[in-house]
Amino acid sequence: MTQLSERDVAARVPALAQAPLKVLHRRDPVTVPPGATLRDCVTAIQRTGTGDSVFVTEPDGRLTGVLTERDIFARLVGGDVEPIDLDQPVERLMTTKPQHLHLEETVGDALKLLQTGRYRNIPLLDDTDHLVGVVRPQDILKYLAEAFPEELLNLPPRPHQQMEQPEGG
Question: Of 22, 101, 127, 168, which one has the greatest count of Cβ atoms within 10 A?
């Protein structure tokens, strides 16, 4: 077993951040067509149980907007505390022209967008601007963790805690 030093690990991270997003595991996006109702969107999010966003795509796969649970809650707790009409079209609340990345952009680009934009789901587009997946912070963490399997698997349960003597017999 070869154990990397902290310096070795730190030296590898920038190279990992320069990898294109196509190396990451991508989640399938939850999608609805334009004109879908808010009820359809909430149902789609609940059905999948994995997302907090629904992406509005044209029949050909082009991304036109995104509706997040934050968009819905902001309306509920915003200035107007009137009930939301769940039968209104998604276009009323969705974010049009959402921030996105292309598969050729880097893991570092995704990290910057997650940090500066406070996004939890980044839509990924192919070179023809069609939605091909979603990347979440968990996907990036998994990618980075897989790059250092021995180092992570051999960490003590509480890395900050030093044992005075070995356990066991």
Answer: 101
Q: Which amino acid is at 53?
A: S
At 66, phi and psi to the nearest 5? -140, 140
| Residue range 78-125, pLDDT digits in tens | 655 567 788 889 998 899 989 999 999 999 999 999 888 778 889 999
Whole-prediction pTM value? 0.76
Residue 54, domain extent: 29-98
- Enter the tokens of residue 168: 């066991």
- Residues 56, 63: contact at Cβ < 8 Å? yes
User: What gap in Å lies between CA 79 and CA 88, rounded to an integer?
Assistant: 19
φ/ψ of 44, rounded to 5, equals -65, -40
| Whether 59 and 44 share a structural domain | yes
Could you report the per-residue pLDDT of 149-163, keeping only the tens digit for each?
A: 765 555 566 666 666
CATH number at residue 76: 3.10.580.10
Q: What is the pLDDT of residue 61?
A: 92
- Closest residue by Cα to residue 64 from 128, 136, 131: 131
- Residue pair 135/24 in contact by the 8 Å Cβ criterion: yes
| Number of other residues whose CB lies within 10 A of the CB of residue 157 | 5
